[in-house]
TrEMBL record, chains A, B:
Entry similarity comment: Belongs to the FPP/GGPP synthase family.
Identification of the protein by name: Polyprenyl synthetase family protein
GO terms for biological process, alphabetical: isoprenoid biosynthetic process
InterPro entries, per the entry: Isoprenoid_synthase_dom_sf, Polyprenyl_synt, Polyprenyl_synt_CS
Length: 320, 320
C-alpha cells in the first residue's frame, strides 16, 4: 500500500473511533474538549501506533486501536494548553478553544483530554503488564513534553542557545510523543523489549526531524504555500537550528530581526544557502532520519516496516 | 491511636516520601511544580488511602504508600489550575504558582503534577490488574473534577441552582477524589469489589460533606478564626447549600448581596438560624456522614475502621 493511502485510511478510522467515543458530548466542557479534536489533523500519531503494532505482530492493531487514540488525544491536550500560553487565536483554520470558551474552560478542556488519554490505554484489549508499562511511558512522555514547552518558552528570553539544548528541546517538545506512539503500539501488541526500544528511538528521531523541517519551511516556503508568515522565526529572533547553525558559522542574524519584504527574504535565503547553513541543517535532519530507519532493524520485513521507513522520509520531505 | 496523632504521623510520612521523590528539582519547571506541593497541607487524601489499604489488609500500606502520594499530587495539580482560573493570589499562606512564575509556567506546573500522579501508581509495588483499575479510576476522577470545577464556575452566571445540581457539583469537585483515595488504597491492597465500592462511596460522601461544612464555616466563622472574609459567599451571591435552602424556604438573600458589617452578619445568621436554614444544612451534612459510616460496614472491625469513622465526623466538626 502507498503511504499516502495508508495515512488517509487510518485518519478515517481514527475519526470514526473518536466519533464513537466522544461524538455525543453531554456537557459544555465536553464540547470544548472536543472542539480541536474534531477539527481535523493528520492523525499521524495513531498511524504510527498502528504501524508499530502491526509491524511487531501482524493484524494486532485491530483490537488495540482504541488505545492508539490516546496519543492523538494527548497531542490535542498539549495543543489546547500551548495555544493558551502562546495566545494563539487560530489552529487548524478554526478559532482556538480559549478564544471561543475563555481561558478557564480551555485549561479544563485540556485537562479533560489529559484524563481521557489515560482512560483510553486502560480500556485497551491487551494484557495488564504491558498496559502498565504503556501508561508509565505516557506519563513520563507528558512530563517531558511540558519540559520541552518550558524550554522553548525560556529560549525566547535567552540570547544564545546551544545546538544540544535545541535538540533536547525539540526531542522533548515533539519527538517523545512520536516515540511513545510507536513504543506503546509495540508494547500493547506484545513486541520484544528491543522492538519497543527501537521503535521508541525511531519515533523520537523522526519527531525531532519533523520540527527541524518546520523551521526550514518557515524560512523557505512562501506564505501562499504554507499559510504562515514567511521567515517569521528569523524576524522574531527565534532560536531555531537555522539560527544556531548561522551563529556557529559567524553569521549575525540580528540585522534581520525586523519586518522583511519578499526581496529581502530572498536575499536572506540566498546568503544562508551560499554560506552552507541551509545545507547543514537539511543534512542534520536527513541524518536523524537515516538513524531512525536504522532503528527499524529490530523489525522483520513487512509492509509496515517499509511504510515506517517511508513515513520517516515523509516527515522531512513535506514542503509545507 | 487518636485520629489527630494518626493524621500528624501520616502527614510527616507523606512529606518525607515527597521529599525523597521530588526534593531535588533539576529544572525551573520542577521547582514551580513543587512549590505548592511542599507548602504544607493536611495530606488528608494520602491518609485516607492508607487507612483504606490497612483496613482491608493490615500492614499493606507500607509497600504501596508511594501510590498514596498520587492523590496528594492530583489534588495539588487541580489547585494550581484552579488558582489560575480563579485568579487567586494566595494559597496555604504562600503566593500562588501563577503569581510567582506566570500563567504559562503555572499551567505547565499543573500538567507536570498531573503526569506524576499517574507515574506514582505505575511504580506501586502491587499486582498489575488492580493497578490498571486504579489508574482507570484516577483518570475518571480527574475528568469528573474538571466537570465539577466547570459546573461551579457556571453556577456563578446562573440565578437558580437546584439542590441536586449543587450536590452533584460538590461531589465531583471535592467528593470523588476522596472516593478515589479510599478506593485506590483498597484496590492496591487487594480489597474485594464490595470493599472498594463501599470505600469509594464513603470517600465521595465525606468529601461532599466537607464542602458543605466549608460553606457553613464561610458564614459562621469570624474572619479572625478562619482567615477568610466572613459571609463572602452570601455577599457574592454564591450558590451554596445555604443559599439554596434559604430560597427553598422563601427567603430572599439578594438584599444581602452587598458589603456587610459585623452587626449585619450577626443579624443574617440569627435570621437564617431562626428560619431553620442553618439547622437544615447541618443536618444534610450529618446525614451524609451517617451514610458514609454505614458504607464502612464492608470492613471488619479494626483500628483503621474506627479511625475512618472518626475521620468522617472530623470532616464536618472542624469549625475553621
Amino acid at each position: 500500500m502507498e503511504l499516502e493511502t495508508y495515512l488517509k485510511k487510518t485518519a478515517e478510522e481514527v475519526n470514526s473511533l473518536l466519533q464513537d467515543s466522544y461524538g455525543d458530548p453531554k456537557t459544555a466542557l465536553s464540547r470544548a474538549a472536543n472542539h480541536l479534536l474534531f477539527a481535523g489533523g493528520k492523525r499521524l500519531r495513531p498511524a504510527l501506533f498502528k504501524l508499530a503494532a502491526d509491524a511487531v505482530k501482524p493484524g494486532s492493531s485491530k483490537i488495540i486501536m482504541p488505545a492508539g487514540l490516546s496519543l492523538e488525544v494527548t497531542h490535542n491536550f498539549t495543543l489546547i494548553h500551548d495555544d493558551i500560553m502562546d495566545k494563539d487565536e487560530f489552529r487548524r483554520g478554526q478559532k482556538t478553544v480559549h478564544t471561543l470558551w475563555g481561558e478557564p474552560a480551555a485549561i479544563l478542556a485540556g485537562d479533560v483530554l489529559y484524563a481521557r488519554a489515560f482512560s483510553l490505554i486502560c480500556t485497551a484489549d491487551a494484557p495488564e503488564e504491558p498496559k502498565v508499562k504503556a501508561i508509565a511511558l505516557l506519563a513520563r512522555t507528558c512530563e517531558e513534553i511540558c519540559e520541552g514547552q518550558q524550554q522553548d518558552m525560556s529560549f525566547e528570553e535567552r540570547g544564545v542557545v546551544s545546538r544540544d539544548e535545541y535538540l533536547e528541546m525539540v526531542t522533548k517538545k515533539t519527538g517523545v510523543l512520536y516515540g511513545a506512539a510507536a513504543a506503546i503500539g509495540a508494547l500493547l501488541a506484545g513486541g520484544s523489549d528491543a522492538q519497543v526500544e527501537g521503535l521508541y528511538n525511531y519515533g523520537c528521531r523522526i519527531g525531532a526531524a519533523f520540527q527541524i523541517q518546520d523551521d526550514l519551511i518557515d524560512l523557505l516556503a512562501s506564505s501562499a504555500k504554507s499559510g504562515k508568515d514567511q521567515a517569521s522565526d528569523i524576524r522574531e529572533g527565534k532560536q531555531t537550528l537555522i539560527a544556531i547553525t548561522a551563529r556557529e558559522q559567524g553569521i549575525d542574524l540580528k540585522p534581520w530581526r525586523r519586518p522583511l519584504n519578499h526581496e529581502e527574504i530572498a536575499l536572506l535565503i540566498t546568503m544562508l544557502t551560499d554560506k552552507g547553513v541551509i545545507d547543514t541543517v537539511q543534512k542534520d535532519a536527513e541524518s536523524m532520519i537515516t538513524s531512525a530507519i536504522h532503528d527499524l532493524s529490530v523489525l522483520s520485513d513487512t509492509m509496515e516496516k517499509h511504510l515506517l521507513a517511508e513515513l520517516a522520509w515523509y516527515f522531512i520531505r513535506r514542503d509545507y
